[in-house]
Amino acid sequence: MPAQLIDGIALSQKLRAEIAARAAALTAQGKQPGLAVIIVGDDPASHVYVRNKVKACEDAGFYSLKDQYPADLSEAALLERIAALNADPAIHGILVQMPLPKHIDPHKVIEAISTKKDVDGYSVLSAGELMAGLDGFRPCTPYGCMKLIESTGVNLRGKHAVVIGRSNTVGKPMALLLLQANATVTICHSATPDLGLYTRQADIVVAATGRRNTLTADMVKPGAIVIDVGINRDEAGKLCGDVDFAGIKEVASHITPVPGGVGPMTITMLLMNTVEAAERT
Ligand code: NDP
Predict the structure, then answer these.
(1) Residue 1: its pLDDT value, please?
(2) Are both 30-114 and 139-263 of the same fold?
(3) What angle do CA 175, 176, 180 make, to 5 degrees?
(4) What pTM value is reported for the model?
(5) Which protein residue's CA is at the shortest distance from atom 22 of ligand 1?
(6) I want to staple 255 with a disulfide (CB 3.0 to 4.6 A). Which of 30, 50, 183, 226 is the partner?
(7) Pocket of ligand 1 (CB under 6 A)
(8) Catalytic residue among 67, 118, 120, 244
(9) In the prediction, which pLDDT does 172 show?
(10) Domain ranges of the chain
(11) CATH number for region 30-114
């Protein structure tokens, strides 16, 4: 039987309605959630991402602040602006769109954001909180993947999850979140020999490599849940993920499509973290 699709668009809509209700309750108490998005330079893709984030904020009833600067903004000026936003009570989340121009150190910038407002969950302190099982903000993409996995109704306790990819923004936090949910977790990466040896044992596979066809049907255990984080293009220029969707949907029990799976969840979890940040104040 072909796998059930895990619909990231439908789940996003449901979660965004819940977030909007929480935002309305906060606004009624005079504490409208506020997200500041900073963009430096004129990278066209970054402008599209920022536009989507601003629109999502407005749709959810948030206060949305877009700070746009020319590419020659100095690092000191950016750090000063972040300090001001850290102190601004109308702002509960701060996001700096990457990439930044070369003369600005992205690490310095991320670390300048108050942990209380680090709704991307990218700072070293937020990563440490996740590692220690504390209540910090979880990076949005892996957090969204967890929601997609939970939506299948699976109990992760004792299940074997394999994460392919070990980036700081996706692979590593994904593995920690699965571990917190009591899965047994294996992390694979580009130096893993015989990837299939691990994935064939997995009840859940999360693929986050940015390489097409990293996972094929012969590498998947029948009935497994497959989450595809990748965003790639095929020879025809069509959007596709990291997994061979057509083949794997005949083997897996559940699978996320690309587009329409993990993608829509990332902004949704940014909204979730921001409303949470406002509730904590
Ligand atoms: P990175 O390039 O930072 O990391 C990729 C990881 O995959 C690395 O750990 C790398 O291993 C590993 N890898 C690469 N090739 C292979 C392979 N053949 N076999 C096993 N492991 C491999 O990417 P990100 O984590 O930032 O993103 C991954 C993908 O997810 C990208 O396509 C990105 O566009 C997409 N993405 C999608 C989002 C969404 O909202 N849908 C959000 C964020 C990312 P090593 O460490 O050894 O190099």
Answers:
(1) 75
(2) yes
(3) 120
(4) 0.97
(5) 190
(6) 226
(7) 141, 164-167, 169-171, 188-192, 195, 208-211, 214, 229-232, 262-263, 266
(8) 120
(9) 98
(10) 30-114, 139-263
(11) 3.40.50.10860
